Amino acid sequence: MSYAELQVTTHFSFLRGASSAQELFETAKQLGIDAIGVVDRNSLAGIVRALEASRATGLRLVVGCRLDLADGMSVLVYPMDRAAYSRLTRLITLGKSRGGKNNCILHWDDIVAYAEGMIGILVPDLPDATCAAQLRKMAELFGDRAYVSLCLRRRPNDQLRLHEISNMATRFKVRTVVTNDVLFHEPGRRQLQDIVTCIRHNTTIDDVGFERERHADRYLKPPEEMARLFPRYAQALARTLEIVRRCKFSLEELTYQYPEEAIVPGKDAQGSLEHYVWECAPDRYPEGLPPDVLKTVRHELDLIRTMKYAPYFLTVFSIVRFARSQGILCQGRGSAANSAVCYILGITSIDPSTNDLLFERFVSQERDEPPDIDVDFEHERREEVIQWIYKTYTKDKAALCATVTRYRAKGAIRDVGKALGLPEDVIKALSSGMWSWSEEVPDRNIRELNLNPNARRLALTLKLAQQLMGAPRHLGQHPGGFVLTHDRLDDLVPIEPATMKDRQIIEWDKDDVEALKFMKVDVLALGMLTCMAKAFDLIREHKGEDLDLSTIEQEDAATYAMIRKADTLGTFQIESRAQMAMLPRLKPHTFYDLVVQVAIVRPGPIQGDMVHPYLRRREGKEPVEYPTPELEAVLGKTLGVPLFQESAMRVAMVCAGFTGGEADQLRKSMATFKFTGGVSRFKDKLVSGMVKNGYSPEFAEKTFSQLEGFGSYGFPESHAASFALIAYASNYIKCHYPDVFCAALLNSQPMGFYAPAQIVGDAIKHDVEVRPVCVNRSRWDCTLERIGGSDRHAVRLGFRQVKGLAVGDAARIVAARMNNPFASVDDMWRRSSVPTEALVQLAEADAFLPSLKLERRDALWAIKALRDEPLPLFAAAAEREATAIAEQQEPEVALRQMTDGHNVIEDYSHIGLTLRQHPVAFLREDLSARNIISCAEAMNARDGRWAYTAGLVLVRQKPGSAKGVMFITIEDETGPANIVVWPTLFEKRRRIVLGSSMMAINGRIQREGEVVHLVAQQLFDLSGDLVGLADRDTEFRLPAGRGDEFAHGGAGPDSRDRPKPVVPRDMFVPDLHIETLKVKSRNFH
């Protein structure tokens, strides 16, 4: 008995199916099913995953889609050939364009227009008049390609229903075919399928009613079982294979063609590329190309010609050239930085004459994969670049890739708990107590939350949430991965409008695009480039110097001295706890040291046991030995330790005889978490190859174990070098222009590792004067104000720091005071015409104090006294009345002013930082009475001493490579302290670690060189101590920077969050941006 299941819904139908394509195909193969027809609803988002599952199992995939029509019908359609597939993708695109994001609106007339070459299967519910009318339409449109589904619904008289549908089909000459409407791969997934139905309908399992499936039969069944269930319909069963034979189309037929680019008149794409390379070469090498670089360039151009990649390079060159013409800072990174051509064209910044690059890491003839050039742009101005791409290539041929937003632990707990009807406080307690999830959640963790792990619904929530983790919830848009095509893009893949205006996305993500070998241009956003651009502007305006990334002084001793002290808060890449701990040990003196620093604090080198050998050799504590000169040539710069992907590739090629293609396969297996463990299959070849070439078996095994560590994460040297350039530039600015760096960093938020409070605190420690938000002196961005007659500048906090203040209201305030500063609250209100809500926000931020000398409460009282102007009709009468009767002056009210502690809490609440005393300073007397010392004292204590300290919790990190160790940074008025929490203590005090705003730690000091940690033995929650500061029962929450993984839910956005729309402050529109308003300087200084 042979059978193909033609109606399979995967979890890419988004909260309809409960199983992945991989699970469905593997199960189908075990059951002896011949083929699978994937028909997700109104979407092809999961079809490439189905293709990969098909490749892995050898089971035939029939490409299809279920179209739910607005006028009532549901039709399964299957393209029979390539042309029909394009009609299907255009049809879905049409429906998405009408329905908007995550919706598809199609009618029968649309099917009529696009049905040529497709097989159609009607999915009726009842054999009634509606079904008859639909069958008539199917027969007229599809002819011999029309079928009707026979599917058990498990209702009373089910066999009679099938009989009547079959008779009706015979009457209209439409053939029957058996389907099973599969929603999950095995019976055990029934509960999860019910839960995703509840989530989709925003209801609970108790109230979902008949929206859920009425029976548990929606799983894959073997052919014999299907024959038993449909004994009277042998022909309908056989027609499943008939449809498989008729549907000859395969996704493997999709041929991608990149758009033709020939910018130079009279030359093709390759000629244009070579023209620009030789034209741009003098900009990079004024004295002529060095012989080795010239040889490299010719080799690269030959390979680009062979692989026909010239149009792709021209596209990226055009994008970068446009950005620079608009003054937008940009820089290429990733494996593209291995290319001399990219360097000469200005796409990347890594000079091949001074860096030993490996072009095969970027483009390889053996690999036959499209190149991937990532270019970072200022995050506030990237939208200009994106819209230029749409305008240049048209929306018919350009769209962003999708990203698949998947369930993670917290989102899965919340949605499943809600569907099972758990109380909101229980759901909140469960989700807030989750850091990450392995195989199971220990009962002790549940009991710590005062919950009963044996409660049925609670246990079921945890079980089903774990099954839901990793399932797609909805499509988002890729940060900037563009797919460009020669012909219409919707001939290849459906396109839908993005949530953000003037953007559109395809239904496939970057992995799908790579699987089909499409070329992708990555237009990415980098906050530090925005910071650098703003810093260079401030330096030009206030310091009279013209700097950019290329003209910054190289190898500056003062900058490296600052880096060696780990004084890198706010800078790029080397600001995290782990990086700061490594800097005093690695002691960078040169740019290449910085490249190593960027790459070494990664899971790959750590798990490969490369960090400690490298540091010991660098410090002279361990000899550097190379068994052969060939290995010294490869690993000389990294002291015999293969820190980079390129190093691993070269070791495999030089020492073990790998070809370039095999070395690249090794690299691919090290490249990303998807291939964890994939390096191991190269072990025999690598070890035997090295032994054959004269290396000892022990050395070969050790080399392999180091490379295997890359299974989690390996860093390309070219990528590290690109990031090191920006890291050095940001540190140079911080070292020589700390005032500029502080202002530029604040003006580029949100970005980076730390919150504004830590950025400002660090600037003050560097002798930068920081001035408060002021209604008469602040602009939207933070600005610099000259200090007296000196050449020093203070940082004036901008209106952007005021929570809730709209950029439009800030613009009106700045424009209104151009000629004269505001004299009072009333004067400001009348001249600026901003709503009183904006005035309240400024008053709560204490912005009336610096120039109008109004404390918070006084300013709020003055705002309450504001009166609207009288209507013109009554103005004259009001004036006569005013002359006849002396105006009653409102008596002055002496308000009790806030305490200093209360003001500090209000500062954090409304501008995210304070320029007053640190909150912990107000508690110092009480803390000292409890023998709690300051953070500075603790960090200066000798090795092994016990210390008891406390502070506000700034950062909590639990790196995957740290084997469960939690790293916490706390801060008091004397500075930060670094805390280490071992897994056993973390599990015992999970609630304190994850929930405290202020924490006390008793532990032992651990010193390693200049790196100091307090290893916690006891933890105490002191969050309650902060409540008294505000003279009220208010919870104090320190605004968290992005480095606090707990406060921000770990890596990536919450799985339930929709992509956020762009707000004005995230975009730069030259004609409207507030910073382009020319305001007389006397009003600011």
UniProtKB/TrEMBL annotation:
Compartment(s) of residence: Cytoplasm
Main location group: cytoplasm
Record field: catalytic activity: DNA(n) + a 2'-deoxyribonucleoside 5'-triphosphate = DNA(n+1) + diphosphate
Enzyme Commission number(s) of this protein: 2.7.7.7
Example GO BP: SOS response
Broad class of enzyme this protein falls into: transferase
Record keywords, A-Z: Cytoplasm, DNA damage, DNA repair, DNA replication, DNA-directed DNA polymerase, Nucleotidyltransferase, Transferase
InterPro entries the UniProt entry points to: DNA_pol3_alpha_NTPase_dom, DNA_pol3_finger, DnaE2, DnaE2/DnaE/PolC, DNAPol_HHH, NA-bd_OB_tRNA, PHP_dom, Pol/His_phosphatase_N
GO cellular-component term (any): cytoplasm
GO molecular function, one term: nucleic acid binding
Region (Disordered): 1040-1063
Keyword Nucleotide-binding in record: no
SMART domains per record: POLIIIAc
Biological role stated in the UniProt entry: DNA polymerase involved in damage-induced mutagenesis and translesion synthesis (TLS). It is not the major replicative DNA polymerase.
Family according to the record: Belongs to the DNA polymerase type-C family. DnaE2 subfamily.
Protein name per UniProt: Error-prone DNA polymerase
Gene: dnaE2
